[in-house]
Amino acid sequence: MGNNTVLSCPLKSNITLVTWKISPRVGGHCTLGYRADTNQTDRTNCSDSMNWKSRPDLDPALEIQQVGVAQEGNYTCELVTTEGSFHKTYHLTVLVPPRLRLFCDAQGSPVCEAAAGKPAAHVSWALGSNSSLQEEVHDSGTVTVLNRLTACGTNGSNTTCLVFHPTGNWSESTDC
Questions:
Q1: Are 27 and 73 in contact (CB under 8 A)?
Q2: Any residues with CB less than 8 A from the CB of 111 and at least 6 apart, and which?
Q3: Is-contact 100 165, C-beta < 8 A?
Q4: What is the mean pLDDT of residues 47-51?
Q5: How far is the C-alpha of 152 from the C-alpha of 98, rounded, in Å?
Q6: Phi and psi, residue 71, nearest 5°
Q7: pLDDT for residue 155 is more than 60
């Protein structure tokens, strides 16, 4: 999320034609094309954030700038050379790190929130106590996970929330 990424295409000599066919999760299909005989590139319905990494005659790789959830989807490079046709397909999945928040509710119970992560974070407590878990799925595909400690046998001492996610793991403590 937010980084640039490069998708490579089979690197072959004697390129005749290169086409990137892009089917993002959000929005319509787009294509980037290159014809060697006329040394021309063409783009149809592609955002400015998607372009050739360099010159397609030297390297047919696709660069996506500032990757976001909207760029998730299928990316296929089709390459035609004098030796035949080649293709490579990617399924791009974007990971979004959750925002961690630990607070005490009106009843004095610790609440741990991992907001807007993709995929959903796993939220738990360091001490095995009773807790209630809620998940809210957002239109963007991100998920907020809320874990409320309902029975805390650690009165007067710190309680530690643990958050596990493919983008990293976090822990925070509070004393409600």
A1: no
A2: 102, 103, 104, 105, 146, 147, 148, 149
A3: no
A4: 91
A5: 25
A6: -85, -5
A7: no
What mean pLDDT do residues 126-136 have? Answer: 87
Q: Express each pLDDT in 62-105 by its tens digit.
A: 999 999 888 999 999 999 999 999 999 999 999 999 999 999 99
Q: Half-sphere exposure (CA, 13 Å, Cβ side) for 92? A: 26
Closest CA to 123 of 170, 165, 162: 162
Beta bridge partners of 115: 99
Domains and CATH numbers, the chain: 5-92 (2.60.40.10), 99-174 (2.60.40.10)
Establish how many alpha carbons lie within 13 A of residue 160's alpha carbon, considering only the half-sphere containing its beta carbon. 6
Cβ–Cβ < 8 Å for 141, 69:
yes
**pTM beyond 0.70:** yes
Judge residue 22's burial from the number of C-beta atoms within 10 Å of its C-beta, 0-12 exposed, 13-18 middle, 19 or more buried.
buried
- Split at pLDDT 50, 70, 90, the class of 153 is low
Residue whose tokens read 């400690």: 149
Taking the C-alpha atoms of residue 89 and residue 79, their distance in angstroms, rounded to an integer, is 12
In angstroms, rounded to a whole number, what is the distance separating the alpha carbons of residues 127 and 147? 13
